[in-house]
Specification:
This protein is of the alpha/beta class. Strands 1, 2, 3, 4, 5, 6, 7, 8 and 9 form a 9-stranded mixed sheet that branches. Strand 3, helix 3 and strand 4 form a beta-alpha-beta unit. The protein is globular and about 45 Å long. The model has no long low-confidence stretch (mean pLDDT about 95).
């Protein structure tokens, strides 16, 4: 049986809310390995839905969490603040979510934590994976508690667009920073990459016009140059925001045309996470 628990992270962790409207952690609680093997802790996934930092895409939250849950992972998702909330509100809420999972690991029966972000949520995941020890979040917990164990970046926003295409990336940075070019430039994932960041699984589609694949390719080059463990998959065809690319996230008969292999990205990501030492269960 599946149950859903909602956690107000500001209230739970005693952090002043300011003007933020988000910061809610959704815990998708299903009967898992701990019910049969009490000493086994499952790895946890934390999806961060996209939406250009202006709204949150429903197709990139619950369906993704349930896909991982069905594969034996513990599943959570974060409903973070969007515009008019500005940076670093979203980063702090993502850090608070990981801290809560670390603090509650024993009661939740979880071990390592992978953060999986989509579009703008992919940018947020990338920021958390590189700024976990910055002054922006230092008051929330020690860096080792805030650093994810792995990142999954799905057609991520990585930087403000440089050409005529990339309306989705441009909107994301406007919503995140209020249009401040200097701040947006400082939040380019390519420039935030560091050798000690978590391993990264990255995927994109070749014909994504809203958030062009070039940003992910440049990010992959930065990861490679820094010696970060990563894997990347570029699919030939698929619109931006396609999520699981099936009838779970689109009305019947309205699934956008796409390369069939896209439907297997969760399993490919899980294989990479397993290579990095994250399994469905870890014995205490």
């Amino acid at each position: 049986m599946l149950a859903v628990k909602f956690v107000d992270l500001y209230k739970e962790l005693g952090v002043p809310r300011a003007a933020a409207a988000g910061g809610t952690l959704c815990c998708w609680l299903g009967a898992g390995a701990e019910a049969v093997e009490p000493l086994r802790r499952r790895s946890a996934v934390l999806p961060l839905p996209g939406g250009g930092y202006g709204h949150l895409s429903a197709r990139e939250e619950e369906p993704v969490a349930l896909r991982f849950l069905a594969r034996g992972w513990a599943a959570f998702s974060l409903r973070y603040s969007v515009a008019p909330a500005r940076h670093p509100t979203q980063l702090r809420e993502a850090a608070m979510a990981v801290r809560y999972l670390r603090d509650s690991a024993a009661s939740l029966g979880i071990g390592r934590v992978a953060v999986v972000g989509f579009s703008a949520g992919g940018h947020l995941a990338g920021m958390l994976g590189t700024l976990f020890d910055s002054a922006l979040v230092r008051d929330l917990a020690p860096a080792r508690q805030l650093r994810p164990d792995a990142l999954g970046l799905c057609y991520p926003v990585t930087a403000p667009p440089e050409g005529a295409t990339g309306a989705g990336a441009a909107e994301s940075f406007r919503n995140l920073t209020g249009g401040t070019a200097e701040e947006a430039a400082a939040l380019r994932l390519q420039t935030l990459v560091r050798p000690d960041m978590p391993p990264v699984y990255l995927w994109h589609t070749r014909d994504d016009e809203s958030v062009p694949v070039g940003g992910s390719l440049r990010l992959a080059c930065a990861l490679d140059a820094a010696g970060v463990r990563f894997a990347m998959r570029v699919y030939h065809h698929g619109r931006h925001g396609i999520s699981l690319a099936n009838a779970q996230v689109y009305p019947s008969g309205q699934v956008p045309a796409h390369s069939p292999q896209i439907e297997d990205w969760p399993e490919e990501m899980l294989l990479f996470f397993a290579e990095c030492g994250m399994e469905t269960g870890e014995t205490e």
